[in-house]
Amino acid sequence: MVSELESRWSLSLGPPVEGDEISCSWVAPATRDAGPPLMLKIGMPHMEAEHEIDGLRFWNGDPTVKLLESDTRLNAMLIERCEPGTVLRTLPEPDQDVVIAGLLRRMWRTPTEPHPFRPLSEMTACWGTETIRHIDQWSDPGLVREGLRLFKELPQSARSTVLLATDLHAGNVLRAGREPWLVIDPKPFVGDPAYDATQHLFNCLERLAADPTGVIRSFADLLGVESDRVRLWTFARAAAETGLRSGFRDELASLARALAP
């Protein structure tokens, strides 16, 4: 695949990028002719990232990296390179809150029909099915079932729906030259904007666990969304994931109980 794309798009590739932030794709720096620095990305087949190419086309560099070439058959993307490419995670978490909130507010637009994007309920249903598959690992069945109930209820009760990033956290935001920060790796679904707060919050788990109500209210205010809905989404994810993620089960269960409606 790499050789085919290298030839077709006239690329000169550097060694592939490695690191903790890269887990579901093959990524390498690329150049062609005398053009700007680029990145070649080939994504693994992944339910959540199925429409990443469509999302990058939709946002068209505002505020994501720009998509220059794509091949949906290979799930391959030639995108602009962020330079210097420092991850937002290097900033203190309260500063990350401000940057993430600003980026999300820019991304939240309603796509015109017809469009390829799936409803958020499809992703939460997939997660629910996976959680039920691990029912023998549930240490608190009542907690897990309440999370799964909200996975079904919350998408239906949203007052507005927009195109979501769903996986926007400080590891998926890079410092760039065209703008101070650009988004990479969007996993677009259409749904409740309050949901989009959760991925960043779960990447600040220690701070969230220390003051769940205060952290959620502060971040919701930055986003301009209802803090009660962010709280419910955060509870639902924490409760449901106690039945799935053994590595953080105790921390997630404590968080879920602190946020329980």
Short structural summary:
With 261 residues, the chain is an alpha+beta fold. Helix content is 42%, strand content 14%.
Descriptive notes:
This protein has helices at 2-8, 52-59, 93-107, 120-133, 141-156, 198-202, 205-210, 212-223, 227-241, 249-259, and strands spanning 12-13, 25-31, 38-43, 67-71, 76-80, 162-164, 173-175, 181-183, 189-191. It is of the alpha+beta class and 261 residues long. The strands form 3 sheets. The chain has a 5-stranded antiparallel sheet with strand order 1-2-3-5-4, sandwiched between helices. The chain has a two-stranded antiparallel ribbon with strand order 6-9. The protein has a two-stranded antiparallel ribbon with strand order 7-8. Strand 4 (67-71) and strand 5 form a beta hairpin. The protein starts with a helix and ends with a helix. The model has no long low-confidence stretch (mean pLDDT 95).
Which key features would you list for this structure?
261 residues, alpha+beta, Phosphorylase Kinase, domain 1, Aminoglycoside 3'-phosphotransferase, Chain: A, domain 2, 2 domains, five-stranded antiparallel sheet, two-stranded antiparallel sheet, globular
Task: Tell me the layout of helices and strands.
Layout: H1 2-8, E1 12-13, E2 25-31, E3 38-43, H2 52-59, E4 67-71, E5 76-80, H3 93-107, H4 120-133, H5 141-156, E6 162-164, E7 173-175, E8 181-183, E9 189-191, H6 198-202, H7 205-210, H8 212-223, H9 227-241, H10 249-259
Antiparallel strand pairs: 1-2, 2-3, 3-5, 4-5, 6-9, 7-8
Q: What percent of the residues sit in helical stretches (DSSP H or I)?
A: 40-55%
Average pLDDT reading:
95
CATH fold description of the largest domain: Aminoglycoside 3'-phosphotransferase, Chain: A, domain 2
CATH architecture field of the largest domain: Alpha-Beta Complex
CATH class of the largest domain: Alpha Beta
Q: For the largest sheet, list the strands in their spatial order.
A: 1-2-3-5-4
The major beta sheet can be summarized as: 5 strands, antiparallel
Could you tell me the number of beta strands? 9
Number of domains: 2
Whole-angstrom Rg: 19 Å
- The 3D shape can be described as globular
Element pattern in H and E: HEEEHEEHHHEEEEHHHHH
**Span of the ends, CA to CA:** 49 Å
Given the structure, what is the number of helices? Answer: 10
- The stretches of 5 or more residues where confidence is low (pLDDT under 50) are none
| Helical/strand content category | alpha+beta
